[in-house]
Design a protein that fits this description.
The complex is a heterodimer. Chain A is an alpha/beta fold. Chain A has 14 helices and 18 strands. In chain A, strands 4-3-2-5-6 form a 5-stranded parallel β-sheet. In chain A, strands 16-15-14-17-18 form a 5-stranded parallel β-sheet. In chain A, strands 10-9-8-11 form a 4-stranded parallel β-sheet. By secondary structure, chain B is an alpha/beta fold. The chains are: A alpha/beta, B alpha/beta.
């Protein structure tokens, strides 16, 4: 019997010939990640273990990105505590303001995560790195602490659901729409405890930035990870970034899947997830009349260069409606710089957008775009739970960057076709 | 471990944002987090519950963020355990790691109503509804996880294994 990608990666990291879904194993970690919200809790737990050093100074990565630049005194204290730990433990990959980015945009960009890696991150969207063919999963702070101390973590080897995407993509449909459609189909617990494997000709032709978006939202279906077979697109992305060896894994032909789900993408139009769950998806033609107060473009889901290019294509020469606050936040400093070189930032500012330094702030209602009671936002972020972006009586609608940009112009949720 | 308390019942997909909203994540003090436990789901929860009470919920409890602040807030508020039809993966793992007992049982959730008096045997997974006189069974934890729970969480488990 063959093995799936996730079984192969975990077997190698557990020093085993083979593992099977359902087994509890101990695996070696290539990267352990934390941010400014989750790391302080992890440091307190780490200190209880009784070791002086982290397992590897290069492989513990800390990115303060949620409440930075610090939004208040408490946030500043959390960051200070984290910064001092990073200095004391001589962590090589601690990213301070000015060089940091949103963690899941930053790590792949810096070549810190590579195909075949096993990664835990104290942030649920750590599953993003599945797009590179890595096994990467979100954990809590205690797991992060144990990982920092030992360089290992326990896992239950997950079953895999294979998703096969075939057909021709419609205009303005990309990775975000494919994953929103998928979550809408299987539900927010449709892949609970399982690995999702995205495959088929559509994925093979999908640019890296769109792949990151898909893997990023595996957690929104309850998934443990969201894997894509590494190919030439992956190699092109990592070859100049990688500073260590990496390994390409793919599922065997006779691997056993829990389920195989096939989609004809030619039937998929741009998707919008209605409040208050990412599974409440509708095609753009079925949205109806939904006015908005705010449009947010960015985050670890859609703050990459291809996302900004899409938004700029829609916004060029146009203005956000007077009733809409448009906020755009590139994922990293590198993305920001490249967007400047390409003239995208100027397009955004001319369209009336506030363009922000990289931060997770707006996505989780932390700062830089919190909603008041009764307000509505369209966002390229990943969650639209009750109170996600601010007041519990506000609403968040999720979409791709082109739909968010078009909606900003019209003051209500519309297809990019209506403004181009 | 025997637990006893009243049940507070909620629905599907109770996410980490309503368990502990992001606006309170600028601290990691459990006592501080406890004040806001379930605030955006049930404003009154921490006032009406008593030490030892239980949260009972339907499917996919704890979906969303990896924030360990969610189980920490629940535990620090004095909730003795959470019974649900299913748990989101990271929440499940975090709860075990910090020593918050959780049990999966569809029949218990269907049988228990808010303010029912409930008794739970964590080791055997037996759940007794004292108000209704019913008994339900949850799947006991695998041995490996029982080991973690028995030593008081993952940190103690790891501390026992590392070379100091």
């Amino acid at each position: 019997m063959g093995m799936t990608m996730v079984e192969k990666i975990l077997a190698d990291h557990a020093n085993r010939e083979e593992v099977q879904a359902g087994e509890l194993i101990n695996a070696k970690l290539d990267i352990v990640l934390g941010n400014d919200v989750t790391t302080p809790v992890a440091i307190n737990e780490f200190n209880k273990i009784g070791v002086d050093e982290v397992f590897d100074k290069e492989r513990v990565v800390i990115v303060p990105d949620h409440f930075v630049p610090n939004k208040d005194i408490n946030s500043a204290e959390q960051c200070k505590f984290t910064r001092e730990f990073a200095a004391e433990k001589e962590l090589v990959n601690y990213f301070e303001i000015g060089e940091m980015g949103i963690e899941h945009c930053l790590l792949p960009e810096q070549g810190l995560v590579l195909p075949g890696d096993t990664v835990i991150g104290a942030d649920s969207h750590t599953c993003t790195y599945g797009a590179l063919g890595a096994f990467a999963t979100g954990v809590g702070s205690t797991d992060m602490a144990a990982g920092m101390a030992t360089g290992e973590a326990w896992f239950k080897v997950p079953e895999t659901i294979k998703f096969v995407y075939q057909g021709e993509l419609n205009d303005w449909v990309g990775g975000k729409d494919l994953i929103l459609y998928t979550i809408g189909d299987i539900g927010v617990d449709g892949a609970l405890y399982k690995a999702m494997e995205f495959s088929g000709e559509v994925i093979e032709n999908l640019p890296m930035d769109h792949r990151f978006t898909m893997s990023n939202m595996a957690i929104e279906a309850g998934g443990k990870c969201g894997l894509i077979k590494p190919d030439q697109t992956t190699i092109d992305y990592v070859e100049d970034r990688a500073q260590r060896d990496y390994k390409l894994y793919q599922s065997d032909e006779d691997a056993e899947y829990e389920q195989v789900i096939e989609y004809d993408v030619s039937k998929i139009e741009p998707q919008v997830a209605f409040p208050h769950l990412p599974e409440n998806t509708r095609g753009i033609s079925e949205v109806g009349n939904v006015g908005i107060d705010q449009a947010v473009i960015g985050s670890c889901t859609n703050g990459r260069l291809d996302d900004l290019r899409l938004a700029a294509e829609v916004l060029e020469g146009k203005k956000a409606d007077d009733s809409v606050r448009l906020i755009i936040f590139p994922g990293t400093q590198e993305i920001y710089k490249q967007a400047m070189k390409e003239g995208l930032i100027e397009i955004f500012i001319d369209a009336g957008a506030a363009v922000s330094t990289p931060t997770c702030g707006p996505c989780l209602g932390g700062h830089m775009g919190v909603l008041a009671a009764g307000e509505r936002a369209i966002a390229t972020t990943n969650r639209n739970f009750v109170g996600r972006m601010g007041h519990p009586e506000s609403e968040v609608y999720l979409s791709n960057p082109a739909v968010a940009a078009a909606s900003a112009i019209k003051g209500k949720i519309v297809s990019p076709k209506e403004v181009i | 471990m025997e637990l006893r308390g009243r049940a507070w019942k909620y629905g599907d997909d109770i996410d980490t944002d309503v368990i502990i909203p992001a606006r309170y994540l600028n601290t990691s003090e459990p006592e501080e987090l406890a004040k806001y436990c379930l605030k955006d789901l049930d404003e009154d929860f921490v006032n009406k519950m008593n030490e030892g009470d239980m949260i009972v919920a339907a499917k996919n409890f704890g979906c969303g963020s990896s924030r360990e602040h969610a189980p920490l807030a629940i535990k620090a508020a004095g909730v003795s355990c959470v019974i649900a039809k299913s748990f989101a993966r990271i929440f499940y793992r975090n709860a075990i790691n910090i020593g918050l007992p959780i049990l999966e049982s569809i029949e218990a959730v269907d049988g228990i109503d808010t303010e029912d008096e409930v008794e739970v045997d964590v080791e055997s997974g037996e759940i007794r509804n004292l108000t209704k006189g019913e008994v339900y069974q949850a799947e006991p934890f695998p041995e490996f996880m029982q080991d973690i729970i028995q030593v008081g969480g993952l940190i103690n488990y790891v501390a026992g294994k590392v070379d100091k």
